[in-house]
């Protein structure tokens, strides 16, 4: 009890003798730290500042590196030379009645990619000449050379592409045959453009390089082929110089019907009619089709054949009809396919549309008969 009342005095006595150290008052607790403590705190703060500065510097270097990587000069993308390739070593050629482009080259191009290839406007191309020394010319203006568009080549398929050229050609004499005139044009091309190795198309949208072959320098030998699988064994001096591979992924019909349609109608092709030339060509195509249809309606060889104009997708056969293809002026060419597996069945050349209708209808009847009888 004595110590309770005299605790302060006792503590003072013990402190004066050095036995205990009195507790710090509140003012003493807030006093500045001793010198060694201040040095330790300063060193710690310097370390923290150094670490923060290092992190900031590293982040700045990383950001600058990322910016440099994004803005650095990149090597140009290589042109793809294997996407669209010609299937024939030479091009077909023929004069035209076009006042702007007097010569037309025809190429068979295959799309080797897994996607359809479609071009609506030739402005996406740069067209240059490849000379014999493998030097490329500068891009040619469309006034001198023009690629016929639209172009559509389905995946893994082959299509025909035309290149029209402005060139003053020698005139055909009244007594000159088509074949003789064609060979004279060949000699003219050999003489005036003999150093041309080919034409190169640069598709800037898809980054494709398409190397087109030159015309044949010499007259090719005519290959006699059966114009139709029918029993008449008719021969044709003309044959299509493009290949059509049947689609093995599709199942062939067991029974075909004698239903016919034009190939572009079956495909649902819609022509581009932006220029007067395109409109003129489209009108010629309509007139050519109408002549064939009138012959189908009129000729007894076409009895039983139905032309599916209102519902073209239901036809089992489709036909391509040309007039003056490959420079064969005054002749009509035709190619017949079955639509289920896209297989070419027959082809031929005639002097008029009646002959085309007769041959096509005969080939359709033969193909329907060869596929077996129908059992009700």
Q: How are the SSEs placed, and which strands pair?
A:
Blueprint: H1 2-5, H2 7-16, H3 26-29, H4 35-71, E1 84-86, E2 92-95, E3 103-111, E4 117-119, E5 125-131, E6 145-147, E7 151-153, E8 158-165, H5 178-192, E9 196-203, E10 208-212, E11 225-226, E12 235-236, E13 259-262, H6 263-267, H7 276-298, E14 306-307, E15 317-323, E16 332-338, E17 343-350, H8 353-370
Parallel strand pairs: 13-14, 13-15
Antiparallel strand pairs: 1-3, 2-3, 3-8, 4-7, 5-9, 6-8, 9-10, 11-12, 15-16, 16-17
Helix pairs in contact: 7-8
In short:
The protein has 376 residues and is of the alpha+beta class. It is 31% helix and 23% strand. It has three domains: 26-71; 77-220, no CATH class; 223-376, no CATH class.
Structure description:
By secondary structure, the chain is of the alpha+beta class. It has 3 domains: 26-71; 77-220, no CATH class; 223-376, no CATH class. The protein has helices at residues 2-5, 7-16, 26-29, 35-71, 178-192, 263-267, 276-298, 353-370; strands at 84-86, 92-95, 103-111, 117-119, 125-131, 145-147, 151-153, 158-165, 196-203, 208-212, 225-226, 235-236, 259-262, 306-307, 317-323, 332-338, 343-350. Strands 1, 2, 3, 6 and 8 form a 5-stranded antiparallel sheet that branches. Strands 14-13-15-16-17 form a 5-stranded mixed sheet. Residues 1-5, 222-235 and 371-376 have low confidence and may be disordered.
